Amino acid sequence: MCKKILACGIIKQELDYLLKDKEVEINYIDPALHVDLNRLKDELSRSMDQMNGDTFVVLGAQCHPEIENMVAERGGQIIKAKNCIDMLFGNKMAETDAEARTFYLTSGWLENWRKIFVEGLKWDEIDARQNFGFYDRILLLDTGISPINDEAILEFFEYTQVPIEIITIELDNLAKLLE
């Protein structure tokens, strides 16, 4: 029997890489839905209902305030991780947070930031600087799966005006959660 996963498109590259040889059907939702909880709830409901009662797992326990109940009502399971960053970075996050006020970024976030912040939240550069001004740094988690575009990093820096650091991480935490 093919297992099913419902996940945010933010971690598409990582999931596709880890599960490429597995009998798994992965359905991705648009990452920009996180800025509109009503639209996110509607899409989660629609996507879970399409899974027709099959065994499925939903990633991201805190991506919507009602997600755990929504999944439980449909007989699914939820991975015990707060969000995509927690899935990738795991317990290293608390240690890193203690160093500086950090906003985390993945290659998926880097690809989708315009859809999320500009189109979804309607932030112009002033809004971005006000909202990102709280952070001391942006930490880009590089899994090594796909090349990171230097121009994209520069564009995001120009938008936020917060220094961006790149850290190489392994996919061990996500792989362990998927087991």
UniProtKB/TrEMBL annotation:
Domain DUF1638: residue ranges: 29-178
InterPro entries: DUF1638
One Pfam family per UniProt: DUF1638
Domain of life of the source: Bacteria
Stated name of the protein: DUF1638 domain-containing protein
Origin species: Desulfofarcimen acetoxidans (strain ATCC 49208 / DSM 771 / KCTC 5769 / VKM B-1644 / 5575)
